[in-house]
Amino acid sequence: MELFLQTLIDGALIGGLIIVVGVGFSLCFGVMHIVDFAVGEWVMLGAYTAYWLVRYLGQDPMVYLPLIFALFFAAGWLVYPLIYRAVSGRRHHPALMGLVFTFGLSTLAKGGALSAWGYHVRSVSTWLSGQSVSLGVTTLPALRLAGFVFGVLTTVLFMVFLYGTRMGVSIRATAQDRETAALLGVDVRRVGELVYATYAGLTGMTGVLIGALFSIHAAMGAKYVIFAFFVVVLAGMGYVPGVIVAGLILGLIQSFVGVYISGRYTLFALFLLMYLSLLVAPKGILRRGL
Amino acid sequence: MTTPVAEVQSPARSAVPRWTAGALLAAALLLLPFTVSSFWIRIATEVLLWAGLAQSWNIIGGYTGYLSFGHGAFFGLGAYVTGIGMTVLGWPFAVGLVVSGVLAAALAAAIGYPTLRLRGAYFAIATWAFGEMLRQAATVLEVTGGAFGMRLPAFLNLPFFYYVTLGVSTLVYLTTYLLLERSPFGYKLLAIREHEEAAEMVGVNTVAVKVNAFALSAFFPGVLGGIYAYWLTYIHPDSVLGGIITDLMVVMVFLGGMGTFWGPLLGAFLVQLVSRSLWLVWGESTLYLVIIGAAICIVVLFMPGGIVGLLEGRRAPLLAPRAAWRWWRERVRW
Amino acid sequence: MTPVLETQNLTKSFGGILALDGLSLTVPTGAIVGLIGPNGSGKTTFFNLVTGVYPPDRGQVRFRGRIITGLRPHRIARLGIGRTFQIPAPFVKMTVLDNVAVGAFIHAGTLAAARRAAAEILEFVGLAARASELVSQVTLEDRKRLELARALATRPELLLLDEVMAGLNPAEVRAAVELIRAIRARGLTIVVVEHVMDAILSLCERIVVLDGGRKIAEDVPERIVANEAVIRAYLGERRSAAR
User: Do A100 and B128 touch (CB under 8 A)?
Assistant: First the structure.
């Protein structure tokens, strides 16, 4: 029972963190109809950036979170025009082109990381690593708890932004009907930029936490691409609230398969569930996807 | 895709020189092992292998417009199936190849059915995840030798593998020509790519056609994987199931020209040429991935029709670099 | 004689919007029926339901007496219903001839046979001269003809035309009307959605008027233009146009 509870909580905690990535990724698709294959690479780069910052400037990696958000926001802001160009106007098959382009970006980033930083596995530690917090029945690793809190806070803030501000309304409007939103005066291109940049910033930040929780290496991105995909397939592409549920499910599956069967089979379990989900509920479990 | 228009547009060439050129090429290919050193035979075999792989990817990616980002998995699957078949089950090579191809096609149909009913993005995602998963499987399972890979019975006969590869790749091109360029099936694929809803409206069973195309596109990589395994004698998860295999297929077809008949051949040839030259300069390097990634991005941004697209004069976006830079500069005005 | 098309109580909602509310109508064989109504009254939704783009929430569609509700579009096309889109949806990177040929694949087994059938149809609609051109180089009016030709290639018994005359000048409209009559003469039944009043009034034997997803009138053209409910639905603007 003890193990079960521990596994459950562990899973929920990790799930909470993944949700951040899932939300941005889903919104990217909902607003700009872009599936960002490079999502895993943003995570990886976030982790590495934290590592190098700590290595050369000292301090706890958590201190750098705002800086990393800003850096990755800027990076996303710079990259987006390229993506936009790849999918825009006269080109045929924008969806195709967008997919291939981000696929190319992801390969580029992965290759760059491997070339620059090699195959070493690194890690980053914070004052929270190795500490635990006891909550009555169980003790939780402080870092995991922090990750979860980060996930929840960020998601909540983002939801507030989406549902409570004018810009948020513009974003949701663009996601629902791009043309009409444009006709109503929404600067659709700017919305796209903002969404992508924010998504990059958030995902980069998440990378820091992931880097602290797990290990950092150039090929780590692949796992998170699958996670992001899994989450949006279950939630339904573009349906943000569903991401929360799906993210938790992901965390739980990761956790339970890892503990009760073997860590090596988590990808299978995820793939199987994703496959079944596509077969049975293509618009997401709650049937609200695009 | 060569429709009557494109043929009319090209300069009038008489049939005779084309025939003799073709015959000469065929003769050159058939006699190659007798005329050059084993170093070149090896390179030629690899180029032919990739030419076949690229065209296979083109069937589902270029003609149909559904990007299979895990296509390398079929190649790896073929390699392992042949490997396991020959070592554990004692199959002859030919049987291994056939089973590899059929299994790859069957698996493609299984994955294709739920994913091809939906948008292209789901298909890309699902195939990609499938590829990753297969690599995990190969690394974990005992029968595949795990991360250490597996050995096949040794058969050191370079010309043999050259001819088998030549044969299978030629078959890929022949099949593509007959089934895609010259038959209703191919035009249905194009219709699906151009406007799937309209295609469905005029009676094209889009799901069935797509699944068939995907299965077909997976069959040959399965066979080629089997050939590769027996040829190299030793395979492991990274060598036959690595993501780079799909990356290469994608960039070859994109560079050459998506959905064109000659594009994949051109692309395979060029990419192999560049990679060999780079290898000479840099040795084994991860910079390779950077270049492939950059190449894909650049092709998408500046020449989405690939080389064949440029040659057919359809679009001239090469003026784009200046415009793109200007456009980017005005964006970065904080 | 079984009517070619019969719908019963067709209902469809999208999110909170009720696009079609219990539409029941019958299309007799060999007729040209007009379907008119203000924007958003459910006309295109109706076409989409009949051709199987999505299933209705409630109701049935019968084609020649056979229930086709819920079948996939390609099966419905094979059974004999053809349709054009409001905004032409051609296969852009193919020639005009090949576009039509794709439609002919239902009946023609080989590429050559399909192209032959397509050439005939292009001749019929007046696009023969453009057969080997790429669609990207073709004008809007010709693209609309191409839509029509492609739908005809499937050898339908029922043809659903969605605003084929939008954007055409009066001369082109007249030509389109003639063409539609010629198509009917070939034995097809046609349902036409249109906003160009002259055309609808001269072409159709019966007109069905939709408003807010419901049928508010169904009658011969002469009586439709005088119908109070119809005039109200169009907010009086159409009154002068209809005269």
Answer: no
Query: DSSP of A37-58, one letter per residue?
Result: TTHHHHHHHHHHHHHHHHHHH-
Q: Is the pLDDT of residue B148 over 90?
A: no
Cβ contact, residue pair C74, B198, below 8 Å: no
For B307-323, give the DSSP string.
Answer: HHHHHTTS--GGGHHHH
Interchain CB contact of B202 with C (< 8 Å): yes
Length of chain C: 243
What φ, ψ does residue A172 adopt, rounded to 5°? -65, -35
Determine contact, residues A240/A26, Cβ cutoff 8 Å: yes
CB C51 within 8 A of CB C224: no
Distance between CA atoms of residues B98 and B107, nearest Å? 14
Among B3, B187, B198, select the one facing C89 at the smallest CB separation: B198
Chains that touch A (3 or more CB pairs under 8 A): B
Residue type, C110: T
Token pair of C233, please?
A: 């639905």
Q: Could you give all domains of chain B from N- to C-terminal order, each with its CATH number?
A: 38-302 (1.10.3470)
Q: How far apart are CA C19 and CA C41, in angstroms?
A: 7
Please name the chains neighbouring C, where neighbouring means 3+ C-beta pairs under 8 angstroms.
B
**Residue C191, phi then psi, degrees to nearest 5:** -115, 125
Domain ranges of chain A: 2-280
> Cβ separation of B122 and A233 shorter than 8 Å?
yes
pLDDT in tens, A69-112: 999 999 999 999 999 888 875 556 788 888 899 999 999 999 99
C98 has a chain B CB within 8 A of its CB = yes
Q: Which of A29, A40, A73, A34 is nearest to A201 (CA)?
A: A73
Contact residues on chain A for B297, CB-CB shorter than 8 A: 82, 86, 101, 104-105, 108
Distances (CA, A) of B179 to B16, B195, C30: 25, 20, 39
Nearest to B2 by CA among B304, B252, B309, B254: B309
pLDDT tens digits, residue range B5-30? Answer: 433 334 444 555 677 877 888 888 88
The beta-carbon neighbor of C103 closest among B5, B197, B203 is: B203
User: CB-based burial of residue C190 (10 Å sphere; 0-12 exposed, 13-18 middle, 19+ buried)?
Assistant: buried
pTM of the predicted model as reported, rounded to 2 decimal places: 0.88
Measured in angstroms, the CA of C61 and the nearest CA of chain B are apart by 17
Which tokens belong to C49?
A: 């339901």
Which three-class secondary structure string do you get for C16-44? CEEEEEEEEEEECCCCEEEEECCCCCCHH
Chain-chain contact of A264 with B119 (C-beta, under 8 angstroms)? no
Cβ contacts of C126-133, under 8 Å, gap ≥ 24: C126/C175, C126/C179, C127/C96, C130/C96, C131/C95, C131/C96, C131/C97, C132/B3, C132/B4, C132/B5, C132/B8, C132/C95, C132/C96, C132/C97, C133/B5, C133/C95, C133/C96
* CATH fold of the domain at A2-280: ABC transporter involved in vitamin B12 uptake, BtuC (1.10.3470)
Nearest to A212 by CA among A73, A14, A3, A6: A14
Cα angle A191, A196, A202 (rounded to 5 degrees) comes to 125
Residue B4: band (very low, low, confident or very high) from pLDDT cuts 50, 70, 90 = very low
Hey, what amino acid is at B96?
G
User: Are C43 and C35 within 8 A, CB to CB?
Assistant: yes
User: What would the two tokens of residue A121 be?
Assistant: 């596995």
Which helix or strand (DSSP H or E) is residue B141 part of?
none
In the prediction, which pLDDT does C235 show? 60
CA neighbours closer than 13 Å in the CB half-sphere of residue B235: 31
Contact C94 B188 (CB under 8 A): no
